[in-house]
UniProtKB/TrEMBL annotation:
Source superkingdom: Bacteria
Organism per entry: Erythrobacter rubeus
Family annotation (Pfam families): DUF3253
Protein name: DUF3253 domain-containing protein
Length: 78
């Protein structure tokens, strides 16, 4: 389990059922006090792919489910 996977899980646990998070929220959580959170985005994207493959999360954009992580997306618990 990676730090990015843990960050995603933690943020989703804080949200009400059916609510989503933005991948950048997970990157910001990983960055902590460091303002350069964008350096963590590749880790977050890889973690999302892993969590999708494990059937733990789904992704969507503007309420429409996405089958692939491409372009903007939101993350939700399955």
């Amino acid at each position: 389990m990676t730090a990015a996977e843990n960050a995603i899980r933690s943020l989703l646990e804080e949200r009400a059922a059916g609510r989503t998070i933005c991948p950048s929220e997970a990157a910001r959580k990983l960055a902590g006090a460091n303002p350069d959170w964008r350096q963590h985005m590749d880790d977050v994207h890889r973690a999302v792919d892993t969590l999708i493959a494990a059937d733990e999360v789904v992704i969507s954009w503007k309420g429409e489910r996405k089958e692939q992580r491409r372009g903007p997306y939101r993350i939700a618990r399955r």
